Amino acid sequence: MRTIKILVLICIFSNGCRSQQGPEITFSFEVKSEEITSVTISKYNYDLEKMVEWKSLDNLIPQKTYQTTDEFLEPSIYALKLNTGKGIKIAVEQGGMVHIKMEDGIKLESKIASNLDFNKSIENLNNQFFAGMIQDFDKAMKENNQQRIAELEKEKDKVLLQFIGSMENLVRQMGPSAKAYDALGYFDLNKNSDFFEEMMTRFEAEYPSSGMSKSLKARINKAAQLAIGSKMTNFKATNKEGVLVNLSDYGGGYVLVDFWASWCRPCRVENPKLLELYKNFEGVKFEIIGISIDSDRGVWEKAIQKDGIVWNQILDKDQTIYKQYLLSSLPANFLLDQEGRIIAKNITAEELKTKLETFE
Fold first, then answer.
1. pLDDT-above-90 percentage for the chain
2. Is 121 exposed, middle or buried (0-12, 13-18, 19+ CB in 10 A)?
3. Residues 101, 288: Cα–Cα separation, whole Å
């Protein structure tokens, strides 16, 4: 009897009893190919806002099933990568069983988890809203038909609002979940701040002290530091010629920090207009810093040459600077005053011309 009482006390005052632990996630890996010998499991760290390697299963044997468990504290994101190089990213929304079949690729079988493929949803929406317009843009740019380009730009702005609205509705339907948290990474906090606030409210109502809610709150607070009137944080990077470019060295004049890429059609449409302003505008000390997120240096340099760009150009191949300013879409830019404060964001060449005229 005394032993039973001691065990009861241990259960009350410690976490040592199994019944006091929270639910678990059990990962079951079924090996169906001789080529698969290991799987690495990474887990998203909400504090660090990145994937961190969690566990690795090695020396796997075909036709066998392996299991590993993780405590379920809140909806979480996991990435699975095989030694063959193939992998998937999944969202696990509650405790339970996650069964993985590993053959030529990775097949998820689970009622509590789902593949993270919001990029495919974006591709589908992009085809739905912009497929015909992209062809028209390419034709007009090839023919240098400025009138048609201007018409398409106006049309694009209207369609873009519908496109973003559809993206937002897809996330709303997910509710506060790991899947929705991942999808929010495809939105630009500088352009979609109201939607972020809306989703954060839903996350805090459902998971008030979760890592997801705290992470979203931290992102919103960080974005507030890039509000109009705020001083833009510094960056250093080498330009196309290998010379160090330091944003803080540009004090005393107006600076447009312009993010673009060779594959971004709206960016390429703006480049000739910016070039005209850069070459012909007089009376104002004005500079442009171009930051491309191209992955191919050769393609980037070819685009610079074709568009005749003459201002400082930086290749942000790993998107370090791009992510520093919480960007997730192009085109994007920040206009800074003589003290390095943000006075406009995502400004068009026409709007920039009007601004510069007032500074003369």
1. 71
2. middle
3. 51
Report, in this order, helix, strand and coil percent for the chain, each rounded to 5.
40, 25, 30
* Least confident span in 50-64, 142-156, 199-213, 232-246: 142-156
This prediction's pTM: 0.81
Strands 254-260 and 244-246, bridge-based pairing: unpaired
Please, what sign has the CA dihedral across residues 276, 277, 283, 287?
negative
Which helix (H) or strand (E) covers residue 352, if one does? Answer: helix 349-359
What are the DSSP calls for 285-314, one per residue? -EEEEEEE--S-HHHHHHHHHHHT--SEEE
Distance CA 306, CA 298 (A): 12
Instruction: Please say whether the dihedral angle defined by the alpha carbons of residues 100, 89, 35 and 61, taken in this order, is positive or negative.
Output: negative
Tokens of residue 351, six digits: 């709007």
Residue 204: both structure tokens together? 């805090």
Higher per-residue confidence, 131 vs 313: 313
The whole-angstrom separation of Cα 180 and Cα 186 is 10
What CA–CA distance (Å, rounded) separates 318 from 180?
A: 24
**Token pair for residue 95?**
């405790």
Integer Cα distance of 227 and 345 in angstroms:
9
**Is 258 in a helix, a strand, or coil?**
strand
